[in-house]
Design a protein that fits this description.
Elements (H helix, E strand, L loop, with lengths): L7 H10 L4 H19 L2 E4 L1 H16 L10 E5 L26 H8 L3 E6 L33 H8 L5 E5 L6 H7 L2 E4 L20 E5 L2 H11 L29 E5 L9 H16 L3 E5 L7 H16 L17 H12 L2 H14 L4 H22 L5 E5 L15 H5 L6 H6 L3 E8 L5 E7 L5 H13 L12
Parallel strand pairs: 2-3, 2-4, 7-8, 7-9
Antiparallel strand pairs: 1-3, 4-6, 5-6, 5-10, 9-11, 10-11
Length: about 475
């Protein structure tokens, strides 16, 4: 194992023991990026000088007796989160040349905890996609098989961690964009409760669904990252004013008394047989660890996909109206104002973003608002009610994260519906605002990772992490690394 493949927990232990410095670890990550970066294409922007300066400062602080939850740990940031002085592209041409004058709250909290930021990772344009093929710049590749996608939209962050380029990363999850690439890249990947982490400095896609999440090799790593970025932020009106607990303290191996719900709607026709087999074996393992398993029903699950693809594009239509070529980013000057708007947006946005803007604008238009958008909001409430009833019977709900393992680059790009189905098991958690965690639970015959999804009630991250950690520590899936050479 080379240094970039260490877990955050292992790296911090080596720092404390004096057997590894942050400068050495950061340089090892940068060397790894040099070695395999052209094959993976995980990063849009690298900040090596800034990273090495931060690493040297972390070593000085540690030598002086200072402590920090992430002091000296090299991390990556999805390029929809702002970092002062570094370009933010959102994977889109329309933000060409934009460098934000401020840093997102979640990123600032990492910096305050002593983290070293290596750079900004590739993403589907404005986080709209499930494969990172919608980036305006390039397609990120899955470290387990370079012919396959890493998932999306946080595919760059997932690939960076899986390939040993960074020890952890931030992503964002609007409909599964942390958990699904976590599953396809064999990582622990957490979407917190909506409102648990500030969205200030996160470039908005769908404001009622977006949430900042975290990637790591282990559940303990994502628990550490959540402990740093969670908490109230007065600059985000949707941030909940509630103290963040000690997530690390929740990580025990004991699942006695834990009630695990298995929704029958999550084992559907079309699911890859290897995925179902691995997830059912994982459920058996949870039972062996002392949990009680109960079949439950979430009857409105089938509506999550159509509801999401009305609400999310509608919110995107409103949020992306600000990109007009006037204040920042790409401007295609046509003399007349409206022509400049159309030319700038036509050239700056890619086909998937245009598709969603048109869908959303249509759903919000006069004569269709009640039939589509308003009805979707009502069904969203029914989906949330399903989960609320489930929490009366169980502590967590488990099932597959993705219905299939990583697919080949180009395989679904011309079939939007098939691409959208990639997130069929993750969308409901965003609609309900609840936390969801992916943990690796096996491999298919092609050696591609399979993910188990664990969901819990709002602000129930402690139980979700506890179940995930107990399962993870009783298996060896999380110890596997791709053979990139």
């Amino acid at each position: 194992m080379f240094p970039g493949e260490l877990t955050i927990t292992e790296a911090l232990a080596q720092f404390r023991a004096g057997t590894l410095s942050s400068v050495a670890l950061t340089q090892a990550c940068l060397d790894r990026i040099d070695a395999v970066g052209d094959r993976i294409k995980a990063f849009i922007t690298l900040t090596p000088d800034r990273a090495l300066e931060a690493a040297a400062e972390a070593d000085r602080r540690r030598a002086a007796g200072e402590k920090g939850a992430l002091l000296g740990v090299p991390l990556a940031i999805k390029d929809v989160l702002t970092l002062e002085g570094a370009p933010t592209t959102c994977g889109s041409r329309i933000l060409e040349g934009f460098t934000p004058p401020y840093t997102a709250t979640a990123v600032q909290k990492l910096l305050d905890a002593g983290a070293v930021i290596l750079g900004k990772t590739n993403t589907d344009e404005f986080a709209m996609g499930s494969s990172t093929e919608n980036s305006a710049f390039f397609t990120t590749r899955n470290p387990w098989d370079l012919e396959r996608v890493p998932g999306g939209s946080s595919g760059g962050s997932a690939a960076a961690v899986a390939a040993g380029m960074a020890l952890g990363a931030l992503g964002t999850d609007t409909g599964g964009s942390v958990r699904q690439p976590g599953a396809l890249c064999g990582l622990a990947a957490l979407k917190p409760t909506y409102g648990r982490v500030s969205r200030y400095g996160l470039v908005a896609f769908a404001s009622s669904l977006d949430q900042v999440g975290a990637f790591g090799h282990t559940v303990a790593d994502v628990a550490t990252l959540l402990g740093v970025i969670a908490g109230h932020d007065p600059r985000d009106s949707t941030s909940v004013d509630a103290p963040a607990p000690d997530y690390g303290a929740a990580l025990t191996a004991d699942l006695k008394g834990v009630r695990v719900g298995v929704p029958k709607e999550y084992f559907i026709e079309g699911i890859q047989p290897a995925v179902e087999q691995a997830v059912r074996a994982a459920i058996d393992q949870l039972q062996a660890l002392g949990a009680s398993i109960r079949e439950i029903s979430l009857p409105h699950t089938e509506y999550a996909l159509p509801v999401y693809y009305i609400i999310a594009p509608a919110e995107a239509s409103a949020n992306l109206a600000r990109y007009d070529g006037v204040r920042y980013g790409l401007r295609d000057e046509q003399g007349e104002m409206w022509e400049t708007y159309k030319a700038s947006r036509g050239k700056g946005f890619g086909p998937e973003v245009k598709r969603r803007i048109m869908l959303g604008t249509y759903a919000l238009s006069a004569g269709y608002y009640d039939a589509y958008y308003l009805k979707a909001l009502k069904v969203r409430t029914l989906i949330k009610d399903d989960f609320d009833r489930a929490w009366e019977q169980v502590d967590v709900v488990v099932g597959p994260t993705s219905p299939f393992t990583a697919f080949k680059v180009g395989e679904k790009v011309d079939d939007p519906l098939q691409m959208y189905l990639s997130d069929v098991f993750t969308l409901a958690a965003n609609l309900a605002g609840i936390p969801g965690l992916n943990v690796p639970c096996g491999f298919d015959a092609d050696g591609l990772p399979i993910g188990l999804q664990i969901m819990g009630p709002a602000f129930g991250e402690e139980m979700v992490l506890r179940v995930g950690h107990a399962y993870e520590q009783s298996t060896m899936w999380h110890e596997q690394r791709p053979a990139l050479g």
